[in-house]
Amino acid sequence: MRFIATFDAASFLDTVLSLVAAFVLGTLIGAERQYRQRTAGLRTNVLVAVGAAAFADLASRLGGPTDAMRVVANVITGVGFLGAGVIMKEGLNVRGLNTAATLWCSAAVGSCAGTDMLAEAVLITFIIIAGNTILRPVANAIDRIPLDERRSEVSYEVRLTVEASALADLRDLLIEALEAAKYPVGDVEEGTGTDGTSLLVAKLVSTAVNPAELDAVTDRLAAVPGVRHATWESTTEE
């Protein structure tokens, strides 16, 4: 049998060590994901790490470092497609990005283990677990900080609900009121409201405003005859 002729005990033990290391480190990463009930949990992270290690080890034994790098590059691409499967869009929210990134990192751990870089694999595992645990309360604390609209990159709109018969005049008045307050208007969109009303939406050129100033402008506009309602809103830019 060709197996008997080509079998090398030293190489086999090296492969065993690489795959066992990938299994153990993938288990550590996956256990944290499983505990938090993520889509890609314990088994998925273990299989990604072991699979990456197996491919990298196979390429190293058959072709050498150059072929190993080529295989690792393809592993990265393949795991990228796998990670896309755990990303879900719910309305305006996107879930699963962190889980997909963790899978990608598990492949990096496996690739290091498969190419006999065990110390690097352990280091990457530690960083992954730290990122998913230690940084979690830090991220939550940042999310609870109130948004200062004067220091954030946001877009602003001033909205008026007006009587349809006064639409043209109130459109000009809206632009004049905003420019008088030093808020130039980039565009004004018109729409149809309910009960025979019309909508005016002025998009501001400014990316930083004083909320109190916009409140004062909308209060003045709300008092104008023909204006049913006046408000403004901000949207955080991506």
Automatic annotation (TrEMBL):
Q: Which UniProt keywords apply?
A: Cell inner membrane, Cell membrane, Membrane, Transmembrane, Transmembrane helix
Q: Which residues form the MgtC/SapB/SrpB/YhiD N-terminal domain?
A: 19-140
* Name by which UniProt lists this protein: Protein MgtC
Q: Where is the MgtC-like C-terminal domain?
A: 156-232
Could you list the residue ranges that cross the membrane?
Answer: 12-30, 68-88
A cellular-component GO term for this protein: plasma membrane
* Family designation: Belongs to the MgtC/SapB family.
Originating species = Xanthobacter dioxanivorans
Q: Which residues form the signal peptide?
A: none
What does the UniProt record say this protein does? Virulence factor required for growth in low Mg(2+) medium and for intramacrophage survival. May be involved in regulating membrane potential by activating Na(+)/K(+)-ATPase.
Q: Which Gene3D superfamilies match?
A: 3.30.70.260
Q: How does it sit in the bilayer?
A: Multi-pass membrane protein
Q: Does the keyword Membrane apply?
A: yes
The organism sits in which domain of life?
Bacteria
Which Pfam family name is an example for this entry? MgtC_SapB_C
Where in or outside the cell it occurs: the entry states:
Cell inner membrane; Cell membrane
